[in-house]
Amino acid sequence: MSDSPKKTRVLFIKYHEAADQQPLSKKAAEKLGIFPSLALAGLAAWVRQHGFPVGIIDLHVENLLPVDANDRVRHFAPDIVALTSKTLGWPAVIEIAQMVRKAAPKATIVVGGPHMSIYPKESMSWDCFDIAVVGDGEETMLEICERIESGSSLDDVAGCVVRKAGGELVQNPARALPKDINKYPMTAWDLIPVSDYHCLTLLKPFATMVTTRGCPWHCGYCSQVYSEKLRFREVGLVVDEMEYLEKTHGVREIVFFDETFTIGKRRMLAFSEEVQRRGLKVKFNIRARVDTVDRDVVRALKKAGLRSIHMGVEAGTDRVLKIMNKQITREQTEQAFRICREEGVDTRGYFMVGYYDSTPDDVEDMISFASGLGLDWASFSVATALPATDLYRIAQERGYVDGDFWKQYTIDGGGFIPQLETETFTAEQLRAYRTKAYMKFYLRPDLIRRKLSKSEGREELMEMLGGASVLGEIIKSTVMKRIPEVGLGKWGTV
User: Fold this and answer.
1) Region at 270 (left for phi over 0; alpha for psi -120 to 50; beta for the rest)
2) What is the DSSP string of 31-61?
3) How many Cβ atoms sit within 10 Å of the Cβ of residue 373?
4) Among 96, 129, 164, where does a domain finish?
5) Which one, of 261, 238, 116, lies nearest residue 181 by Cα?
6) Which of 63, 123, 241, 267 is 20 to 30 A from 387 via CA?
7) CA-CA distances (angstroms) from residue 7 to 79, 88, 422?
8) Do 250 and 134 share a structural domain?
9) What is the pLDDT of residue 418?
10) Which domain covers residue 360, as residue numbers?
C-alpha cells in the first residue's frame, strides 16, 4: 500500500452487458447471470494500492442506464474515468463516455478491454474518449494515473492510442506484457455489491476469479487476442483470495474464468491440497479443454470443492473440429466427460451451430452427440464471426460478411449485427437448428429425472424452472414457421 495518498480520483464504470447476450431479451439474459467485472475491479485494486482514491459503478448489476448514473459521476468528481469494452458492448460504452463528458467535463476518459486490442484507432474516432489502452491494463493505467497526478503529458504513454491536444490520434509503441502477475492485488471486492450478482446455475452469493493469463491454442472462432504466453498466479495467492471471499463475503461458489484452468497437473494437485489444508468449504467451477482432463486431477479437485466443469465441445464430428482448429477429437471429448461423470462432477458443454463448411448432417450429429454425453447442462450458439478470428477472415474472403463489418461497426458506434449465413445455411435455418438442439437436449426424460434425484433437489428444481423460461425465450426468438430442411419432426414448428 502506498504511504502517500494521491489527489487524482479514479472512477471505474461497467456497462450494462445485456447487449452481449443477443438474441436473448434483457429479462432472459439477466436470468442467465450478472457477473462482476474482474477487469475493472482488478484495476481499481491496483491503482488504489498506489494511493489513488477509487470508486466503481456497475450499471449492469444496478440495472441502470448511463443517464441514471449522471449525478453519481458528478458527485464523485473524478479526474479519470475508466471503461472497458467487449465488441458487442461497444455502443453501450460510447453512451457512458458521452454521459461522463457532460457530467465531468474535465475528466480524462480512458477505455480499454478486448475491443481496444482489435480496433484501437477506430475506437478513438469517437471524441468522447481521450486515451485507449491496448493489452494488459495494469501498468498502463497506473502510468496514466501518475502522469495526471503530476501534471505530465499523456502523449507518449506506451501501450496506448492517445488523442493529442490538436485532435491528432497517435498509436504509441506496445507495452511489454508483465511477466509476473503475482504482484497484482486481489480484486477490490469491497467496492462492489458481491451479494447482488447472480446466475441461474450458481450458488449465491458467488464470486469470480482468474488464475492464469494467456492461451496457447488458436481456435478459429475465438478472439482471445492478448497473449499466447501463459502466465500463472501462485497457488497460495489464489487460495488466499478464496479464503477471503468465503470468510468475509460468505461466498458459496467461485467461478474460475481462466481460458483453461486445468493446465499443469502438479499445479492442480497443489491447489487442491492447499484448499483442503485450509478447510475451505466454498465450492468452485472451472473451464477446461477436454484434452487437459485427467482423472487424478478431477478427483483431487472434487475433494477440494469442484462443483462443475465447463468444456467447449463445439462440434460432433472430427472433420468439423479440424476445420475449427480445435485440436481435440470426439473420442477425447467422450473420455473427458465420462471421467467427470464417474467422479461425480457436474458438466456443461458448449456447442456451435453453422460453422463454415459444416453440413446439415454435421449439425444433426452435433445435436445427437450433445444429448448422448451425459451432460448436466448444454449451451448452443449460432456461429458468430467475431473480429480477429480465423472465422471472420474466412467470412470476409467468401463474402459472408460485407467488407470489414466490425471495423465499420466500431466507427459507426454499433449497428445491426448480421447473422452469419453460408452457402449451406440461411439465418433462419441456423436459428431453427439452435432451437432444435435446446429442445432435444433439455426435454429428455432421463435428464429431468437425473436432476431431480440430486441431493441439491430444491436448488436443482429452481435452476430447471429458470432454465425453462430462458428456453422459452430462445424458442420465441426463432422465426415461427416450418423450415423443412431442419426436419424438426416431433419437436414441432419453430
Assistant:
1) alpha
2) HHEE---HHHHHHHHHHHHTT--EEEEETTT
3) 21
4) 164
5) 238
6) 63
7) 9, 34, 55
8) no
9) 79
10) 189-491
How many Å apart are CA 204 and CA 200, to the nearest integer?
A: 10
**Which strand (E) or helix (H) includes residue 288?**
strand 283-288
* Rg (the chain; Cα; Å): 23
Per-residue confidence (pLDDT) for residue 23, from 0 to 100: 47
**Nearest alpha-carbon partner for 380 in 361, 366, 395:** 366
User: What is the reported pTM?
Assistant: 0.89
| Range list of H helices, 401-456 | 405-412, 427-442, 445-452
Question: Among all chains, which residue has been given the C-alpha cell 470489414?
Answer: 404
Q: What is the CATH number of the domain that holds 341?
A: 3.80.30.20
**C-alpha grid cell, residue 89:** 458492448
Residue pair 104/78 in contact by the 8 Å Cβ criterion: yes
Question: Cα separations (Å) of 80 from 120, 197, 337?
Answer: 19, 26, 47
Question: Which is it for strands 212-213 and 231-232: parallel, antiparallel or unpaired?
Answer: antiparallel
- Say if residue 378 is in the same domain as residue 467: yes
Which residue type, as a one-letter code, is found at position 228? E
Q: Max alpha carbon distance in the chain (Å)? A: 70
Rounded to 5°, the CA angle 424-427-431 comes to 110
Please count the other Cβ atoms lying within 10 Å of the Cβ belonging to residue 441: 21
Count, residues in the chain: 494
Q: What is the mean pLDDT of each run of 10 residues along the chain (494 residues)?
A: 80 82 52 86 98 97 93 97 94 96 97 94 96 95 98 96 91 92 97 93 94 91 74 97 98 96 96 98 97 97 98 97 97 98 96 95 97 94 93 94 93 88 92 93 84 60 56 55 37 27
